[in-house]
Amino acid sequence: MEKEYVDYITEWEATEEKIVPNAAKRDSMSFKELVNKWEEYESERMYEKGLVPSSMYFLMDEDKKIYGAIDIRHELNDYLLRYGGHIGYGIRPSQRRKGYASQMLTLALPIVKELGISKALITCDKNNTGSAKTIMNNGGILENEVINGDEITQRYWIELR
Does domain 2-159 have CATH number 1.10.10.60? Predict the structure, then answer.
């Protein structure tokens, strides 16, 4: 999958946007180092770093082209409760507005439920109307907005049944 990942992340890096989810960034690591990092993210060792365990998934087609990434956090710390939520996701720039984000979030919600989470928090920047629609299309209810520096974060909750 290295070639497919490099193609995916190179497209993101060619834009001036920040890569979402942050855990998908390569940060000058080799592909093997990235895979090891993602495996470590799923472990309890993340608590030692002040983080929570999480699981990274990629949305791909039958040819293994990567359309997006989604990071599922197994629980919330104070920062995630305010700004990040249980789920962070992003679609590569060339594949947006095709329903992939909604599909990816729909596929992720049962995984979140399997983690024992009955109500998932998902956040997005206030100016990201596409993400807000994706969240609402999956049952998200806006609780509030919080200010973080120059950004306004919208906080949505989805009941998992």
Answer: no
For 28-79, what is each residue's pLDDT tens digit? 899 999 999 999 999 888 888 888 999 999 999 999 999 999 999 999 999 9
As a whole number of angstroms, the distance between CA 60 and CA 130 comes to: 20
Q: Where are the domains of the chain?
A: 2-159
**3-state DSSP percent of the chain in helix, strand and coil, to 5:** 40, 30, 30
Which residues sit opposite 122 in a β-bridge?
85, 156
- Is residue 134 within 8 Å of residue 101, measured between CB atoms? yes
pTM (2 d.p.): 0.93
Name residue 131's amino acid. Answer: S
